[in-house]
Structure formats: structure tokens, C-alpha cells
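Exercise 7.
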Amino acid sequence: MRITIRCLVLGALATAGAASAEPVLMSAEWAQQACTAWNADPVLPTKLQESGWATNDKKRGYKILRIARTDCASSPMVELKIASKDGRAQCVSGGSAAESPPLDTGVDYLMTAETRRWIEMGHGDYGPMKAMLFGRLSFDGPMGEAMGNMGPFESFLLLVGKVPGDAANCPK
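Solution. The predicted structure, written as C-alpha cells, is:
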């Protein structure tokens, strides 16, 4: 009887722990939380609207930021869809990029790095200029536009450190 009760208690604790576990870093679930964090950030929605970044969308009504961990080669990419809404550059969706159309690198962004580099950038160990200069962050997209928005770009990298994520596993 004691063994059965102990097993039930341990099973319940394991289930509760699994339910509260962090999503895998750069999984679709993590991207949804990153979208929420984007909208709550004091820099991203305001500065990217003020600079005109959010409205450079080729009249599609949105921009895409697609991100991935290069050491998780078989993992799907995730993306944040950003739109100019209510006078702010708001994240309107976050999730898997598997069903999305190809990026238009005239307005959209693709950023990839090793997991440890994302973590370093997310902790503020270095910013986007150093990351790109030393090849720690791969970047495709409108370079001039990105260079004109380095402050918000750095806030985006810091967002990776603000949104909890399990970096020990790769997204599936």
C-alpha cells in the first residue's frame, strides 16, 4: 500500500513538474512567449515604429523575424510576425515557420546562431555588432535597415534571455 501511494505521489509531482517546465528554446511554444515579451518590451514596439522599420513591409502588412539554433540542424525554424498596429510595432504571432511563405530578405530577417551564442547574446555578454563581426550571429535581411536600428536589434537579442527556454534540448 505504501509503495502504491508513494508511486502515485511521485507520479503526480513529476506530472506537475512537466506541466510547469520551460518550453524548448526557439520552439513554437517559446516563440509564442517571445511574441508576448516583444509587445511588453519598452523599446521594441515603440522604437521600431518610430524609425519606420515596422512599416517597411512591401505593403504586406507585416515583417517576419525568423530565428534558429544552428546546432539543432533538424529543428524547424520559428518566427515572429511583426505588424504596425495601433501606432506600435507589435508582434501579432509567434510560432513555427514550417507553413510560412519564403522570406523576402528585402524586408524580412533570418538570424541563426549556435545555442550558446544565443544565450550569451540574451544575457547581454555582447551586442549585435560584435556578434555579426565575429561570426557568432548569421544574418540575412536588409542590412542598412538593421544597421539603423541597432538599439532595438540589441533589445531583440536580449529578449532571447528574458523568455525562459530549455536550451538543453532541440526543438522538434
